Amino acid sequence: MVAGIKGMFLANKRTDNQVKTYITYNRGRDWRLLQAPSKDLRGNSIHCVLPYCSLHLHLHVSANPYTSGNIASRDSAPGIIVASGSIGAELTTSNVSVFITSDAGNTWRQIFDEEYAVLYLDQGGALVAIRHTPLPIRHLWLSFDEGRQWNKYSFTNTPLFVDGVLGEPGEETLIMTIFGHVSHRSEWQLVKIDFRSIFNRRCIEADYQTWHLHNQGEPCLMGVKRIYRKLKPTSRCVMGKTYSVTMTSAPCDCTEADFECDYGFERRTDGKCTPAFWFHPSSMSRSCTTGMTFLNSTGYRKVVSNNCTAGVSAEYTARRQQCPIQAPKGLHLVTSEGSLTAVLGTNVTFLVFLEEGDGARTSITLDFGDGHALTYSNVSSLEDGIKHIYKAVGIYRVTATGENSLGSETAMLYLHVTCQLEYIHLSAPFVAVRNKEVNLTAVLWPSQVGTVTYIWWIGNNTEPVITLEGSVAYTFSREGINTVTVQVSAGNTILQDRKTIAVHEYFRSHLLAFSSNLDEHNPDIAEWRLDVSRVIKNSLIQATGVREDQLLVTVLPGLPTAAEFFLLPDKQITEGKPEKSSAHLDQLSELLLSALNQNLVQFTLRPGVQVTVYAAHLSAAPLVDTSENHSGSAMLMLLSVVVVGLAVFVIYKFKRKIPGLNVYAQMQNEKEQEMSPANPTVATPSSQRDLVHSLEILDTELNSRPIGKHQFQYFLSFISHHRVHVLFRDCTVRFVMCFSVKWSSQQDN
């Protein structure tokens, strides 16, 4: 801002990587480049043609009162501006000179070809210049005619490193102080200079003249003509502290130059103001009520502080008009945060805007998409927004409908309501068969969190598999250990889980069950399952002698507690021989199942808690056998169970005795000991008398019922309820080998 001239500014603007200086006289409504001086300091002509060449100024104003900046102007000396700069296509830091204007920037003169600090004395009646240099100096320059002529004066006999210059007490006096030092090791030296002795009289009225402020000949600036009273350049007198700037002004008729583009409008190359691409002029009447009036913009508004009158004022000033009657148009629906996501259970604020239409007579209905809707009588009642809380995760279509007697308008958005994802679990097989498809499933908690993206990193693949479903199928083509990592992205949360899968050509697996006391101590966390898996593995190795690298054990999540063991072939024995692998695994499987059936596998969970490990014979898949030739054996095993059950029923129904039949009920003892593998204890079977008594009860019950298909179901439930374990020896049915069947079910404690 230029001091002393209202509405006048100088500014540097970067255009095409070039910094150029511009000037305005109407608070930035119009800008133009500075016309360079026609001659240099030595009187040589300067050929500088606009807009390719102009004067550019350094506009750094010093905040230090003891030093001057690159530009200076004073309220007491309107129209006089001193600044450092350069002439050319752009502002540079080389070839810097000092320029002055006495007519508020219309014309400029070069006064020094080096940088100087310039001070105003006697309210601009005298100018003092001191050279900017790191070298010691002892001269200064003084001008009484607004910088047209400069006289050289010596202010000290010994050259001085000048640190600063200060006019005391201000620019209205003729006293100044220079402070510096003679050498870098000396103390500060203060030099006080009083220029009053140079003048021999005070200024009188004849020493002043009138000066008309103008912009390249245009006298009306900011709507007025301003005439200043200032000292003649030829007068050499003292104005003193009593002098004050005198200005007279007269209003001008308004012209297009007194108006700038209104809000929402921008100036085109031809100077006209037209609506910006984002602005709809009709929106100014959106809150207008029928029967009322509003100010309809013409696209222009008077420049701030402009005092013009009449002229084209009526043409460019906004006009008051009656509010139109129209159907709703341009209905907008957004959330207060501008987001399309929301957290479950939190307030969501919807904002409704209407660009056109009678807002006071347009009703708004907002359907939240979850079965709830609200209706408001007019738009003005929605200024604070509409709040709603969603109680379920999902994607909701929110619809706003504005309606009046002339029509309706609809707007909608799709809101994603999510909740915080807290935990994920990757469900994957512990061991997989090579070249056979396995399912990988990510389980989320809570299960419904909104829109979820799954990123799967499988094995050594460098690129992930991205899905919207929580399960993928994958086939491992190589044996070995493979790591599967799943990352789940829900909103701003990303969680992951990782599992290791052993891939082999052949293996055997079997489900394991435990004595019921283990469930009481199962916290169902991954760390506990991992620890117990190691203990079970050690117990199996101790009971059977199976090598550690051929046995894997994993405890499955959930209750009741269950586990699964996997038998891997010995590569040294079965390398390249599938038939040997199958036979070898069968031998190991029989060895482990025999130990489990004889209750030889036990461990101490903690002091006093003894846990027995069983083979889960009645599981849906009691033996996972990867070879095809053993699937018939499993079916034969199931069939034999059914046949034996029928035999028991027939035996006790008709009270027949068969030699060699040994029936007993096995009872389990629970002990409290520390978790470690332990030697199995011999279970004491219940007496045969108790079992026969139970079966006699069964016989009585069956005799009292009609013979039919429901008797067999009752028999099974009876045996399951009493946890009967039946062992058959010397079987009379025709099978290759004798076997044992264990019937058990969960009994209420």
Automatic annotation (TrEMBL):
<dbReference type="InterPro" id="IPR006581">
    <property type="entry name" value="VPS10"/>
</dbReference>
<dbReference type="GO" id="GO:0031901">
    <property type="term" value="C:early endosome membrane"/>
</dbReference>
<dbReference type="GO" id="GO:0043204">
    <property type="term" value="C:perikaryon"/>
</dbReference>
<dbReference type="InterPro" id="IPR000601">
    <property type="entry name" value="PKD_dom"/>
</dbReference>
<keyword id="KW-0325">Glycoprotein</keyword>
<dbReference type="InterPro" id="IPR013783">
    <property type="entry name" value="Ig-like_fold"/>
</dbReference>
<dbReference type="InterPro" id="IPR022409">
    <property type="entry name" value="PKD/Chitinase_dom"/>
</dbReference>
<feature type="transmembrane region" description="Helical">
    <location>
        <begin position="634"/>
        <end position="652"/>
    </location>
</feature>
<dbReference type="GO" id="GO:0098839">
    <property type="term" value="C:postsynaptic density membrane"/>
</dbReference>
<dbReference type="InterPro" id="IPR031777">
    <property type="entry name" value="Sortilin_C"/>
</dbReference>
<protein>
    <submittedName>
        <fullName>Sortilin related VPS10 domain containing receptor 1</fullName>
    </submittedName>
</protein>
<keyword id="KW-1133">Transmembrane helix</keyword>
<feature type="domain" description="PKD">
    <location>
        <begin position="351"/>
        <end position="411"/>
    </location>
</feature>
<keyword id="KW-0472">Membrane</keyword>
<dbReference type="GO" id="GO:0055038">
    <property type="term" value="C:recycling endosome membrane"/>
</dbReference>
<dbReference type="GO" id="GO:0043197">
    <property type="term" value="C:dendritic spine"/>
</dbReference>
<dbReference type="GO" id="GO:0006892">
    <property type="term" value="P:post-Golgi vesicle-mediated transport"/>
</dbReference>
<keyword id="KW-0812">Transmembrane</keyword>
<dbReference type="InterPro" id="IPR031778">
    <property type="entry name" value="Sortilin_N"/>
</dbReference>
<dbReference type="Pfam" id="PF15901">
    <property type="entry name" value="Sortilin_C"/>
</dbReference>
<dbReference type="Pfam" id="PF15902">
    <property type="entry name" value="Sortilin-Vps10"/>
</dbReference>
<dbReference type="GO" id="GO:0005794">
    <property type="term" value="C:Golgi apparatus"/>
</dbReference>
<keyword id="KW-0677">Repeat</keyword>
<dbReference type="Pfam" id="PF00801">
    <property type="entry name" value="PKD"/>
</dbReference>
<dbReference type="InterPro" id="IPR050310">
    <property type="entry name" value="VPS10-sortilin"/>
</dbReference>
<dbReference type="InterPro" id="IPR035986">
    <property type="entry name" value="PKD_dom_sf"/>
</dbReference>
<comment type="similarity">
    <text>Belongs to the VPS10-related sortilin family. SORCS subfamily.</text>
</comment>
